[in-house]
Amino acid sequence: MPTLLTRRLALLADEKHRAVLAGGLRGIERETLRVDRAGHLARTRHPVAMGAALTHPQITTDYAETLLEFITPAEKDIADTIAKLDGIHRYAYSKLGDELLWSQSMPCQLPPEEEIEIAWYGSSNLGTLKHVYRRGLALRYGKAMQCIAGIHYNYSLDERLWRVLAEHEETAGKPLTPRSFQSEAYLAAIRNFRRYSWLLMYLFGASPVLSAGFLRGRPHKLEALSADTLYLPYATSLRMSDLGYQNDAQSGLSPHENCLDSYVAAMTKAVNQPYEPYAKLGTKRDGEWIQLNTNVLQIENEYYSTIRPKRVIQTGERPIQALCARGVQYIEVRCMDVDPFEPVGINVATGRFLDAFLLFCALEESPTTTPEQSARYTENFARTVKEGRRPGLTLHNGVEEVPLPVWGAELLERIRPVAALLDTLRGDSVHGDTLEAQAAKLQDPELTPSAKVLAALRANGKSFSAFALAQSEKHAAYFRSHPPSAEEASYFDNLAAISLAEQAEMEAAPQTDFDDYVAAYRASNLCQSRLDCD
User: Fold this and answer.
1) Which positions fall inside the Glutamate--cysteine ligase domain (predicted)?
2) How far apart are CA 438 and CA 419, in angstroms?
C-alpha cells in the first residue's frame, strides 16, 4: 500500500509538476558577536559605516549592540543563499577595522552584566520600542543569554505545490481554501520537525563547550575541561539545552501546532496573560520603561522555539496579525548552531541536507500531536543536545526505546527518496551525497561537529576561548583576503546610505507619545479564530 509520502513523491516527479518542486525559497539569518583582538566583547557601537540597524534589510543587530545579524535575500538555491551570506560577511569585514566576528554560537568571555550594551535603534518610537523590548529580555533572561548566536534557516515551498497536492488529496470534513491548505500543511511539517529534529542536533550541533563565566553562578552539572572551559563529554548543543535559552515563564508554554488557529490562540494568550514575577517588576522604573508589558511574552518573537510558522509582515503589523490575515508563508528553523569550522557559519552541504529533511517533513504523514507525545519529542531533543554522542544512548520512537544511531539511520532511509527526487531535478547527486555524509556521522560520532570541537580543544590547550579566537582569526583572514568587489561595495554602501536616511526621516517625523504608541502596539495583537481543529 503506497504511503502518503510515496504518493506525493510520485505526483511531484511527474514532468508537469517538476517546476513547482524546483520553486520555493531559502534564506539564512546568521548571528555573530563583534569581539576585539583579545577575544573580548567589543565595546564599540554598531558601525555606522554598515548602515542603520533599524532599517537595513541585510545588516542589523539582534539583542545586544555587539550581536550582528546578517540576513540574506531569499533565493531558490541554497548555494546562492550562502554566496549572498559570504558577500555580506566580506563587506562587513571591510568596515570592522581591527574587530573580529566570533566563530561560535556560545559567547566569548563576557564582562559584567551592566557592561553589556543593549542594542540601540535610535530615538523614533519604533526604534525605542525595539530597544525597550530588549531591556525586557535583559530583565527576564539576563544579558549573557542575549549574546548567544545561531543560524536561522528560512524555508518555503512554491505555493503552486500546495495547490497541486490539494487537487489530488481529499481533506477530512469541510474542504479547505488554498490558503488554509497551505497553512495546515506547514503546521504538519512543523509537527514532523518536532518529531525528528533531534537528528539535526546530533548531526550539526556544534556547542558542546562554553566559557566558564557564561553561567553567572547558575547551578549546573557541567564538567571542567580547563580553568576557563566547561563542557559535557557527549553534548552536541549546549546552546539548545536548558543552559542556553531557558526561562521559567516559558516552561509551560507549548503552542498547540495541530492547526494554525490553535497555535495563534496559544501565542495570543501568551502575549496577553500577565506573569506574576514580571508584574512585580512593573513596566517602568524611575519613569523609564524597563519592559513592554508584564505578560508571559512581551511580543511573539520572545518565544524561544526551535521552529516557527512565519509570514512576511507589513509595516506596523504584528506576526500574529499576519498569520491570521494571510496564513503561513514559510517556516523558520531556529535550532542550528553556528558551525565554527565554516567562515559563514554553515556550508552548502548542510543546506542541502536541511532542504531534503524539511521537504520530507512537509510531505510525510503527520498525525496531530497529543500533549504526551509533545513531551516525548521534547525529551528526545533534550537527551540529544546534552548526551547525543553517548554510547548506548536511546530515544523513544513512540513505541519503544531505540538506539539513536539505529533510529537515525532509519530516518535517513526514509529521507533518501526525497533527496533522490531533488537530485533528479538538478541532474546531479548533491542531496544524496550529503545523506551519505550524515550516515557516516551516525556510524562514527567522532565525525560530528561537536566531537570535532572537543578534539580541537583537547589538541590545543583545552580552552574554549583560545579555540574560538583562533577560528575567528582564521575566518577573518579569509574574508579580508577576499574583499568585496567594487560593484559589491557600491551595492552595500548604497543600502547603508538608504537605511541611514530612512532612520533619520523616521526620527524627524512627528512622534506620538511613547506610552500611547506602546498601548496601540499592544492592542494590535488580538486575533479572531477562523477554523475549528482538534
Assistant:
1) 10-382
2) 13
CB 176 within 8 A of CB 184: yes
**Is this prediction's pTM over 0.90?**
yes
Per-residue pLDDT reduced to its tens digit, 74-116: 999 999 999 999 999 999 999 999 999 999 999 999 999 999 9
Q: How far apart are CA 406 and CA 391, in angstroms?
A: 12
Higher-pLDDT residue of 255 and 175 is 175
CA gap 168, 151 in Å, rounded = 36
154 φ/ψ angles, rounded to the nearest 5 degrees: -95, 130
Given a contact cutoff of 8 angstroms between Cβ atoms, the answer to whether 290 and 139 are in contact is yes
Q: How confident is the model at residue 533 (pLDDT cuts 50, 70, 90)?
A: very low
> C-alpha cell of 221?
552539572
Are 488 and 90 in contact by the 8 Å Cβ rule? The answer is: yes
Contact 334, 309 (CB under 8 A): no
SS3 content of the chain, % helix, strand, coil (to 5): 50, 15, 35
| C-alpha cell belonging to residue 284 | 517602568
- Give the three cell numbers for residue 282: 512593573
Nearest to 255 by CA among 346, 351, 340, 323: 323
B/e letters for 259-275, b = 16+ CB within 10 Å, e = fewer, are: bbbbbbbebbebbeeeb
- Contact assessment for residue 369 and residue 398, using Cβ atoms and an 8 Å cutoff: no
**448 in Cβ contact with 202 (< 8 Å):** yes
Tell me which residue has cell 525528528: 196
How many whole angstroms separate alpha carbon 48 and alpha carbon 504?
Answer: 13
E-only strand ranges, 227-338: 229-231, 284-285, 288-289, 307-310, 330-336
What are 264-290's pLDDT values in tens digits? 988 888 999 999 999 999 999 999 999
DSSP label at residue 528: -
139-144 own/partner pairs: CB under 8 Å, 24+ apart: 139/281, 139/290, 139/291, 140/247, 140/249, 140/278, 140/291, 141/247, 142/113, 142/216, 143/64, 143/110, 143/113, 143/116, 143/118, 144/107, 144/110, 144/113, 144/116, 144/214, 144/216
Average pLDDT over residues 235-242: 95
Domain residue limits, the chain: 4-523
d(CA 506, CA 493): 20
pLDDT at 485: 97
C-alpha cell at 392: 548506548
Q: How far is CA 49 from CA 16, 164, 487, in A?
A: 48, 47, 17
DSSP 124-138: SHHHHHHHHHHHHHH
Topology at the third CATH level for domain 4-523: Creatine Kinase; Chain A, domain 2 (3.30.590)
pLDDT score for 175: 77
Classify residue 14 by burial, with Cβ atoms within 10 Å: 0-12, 13-18, 19+.
exposed
Looking at residue 246, its pLDDT comes to: 61
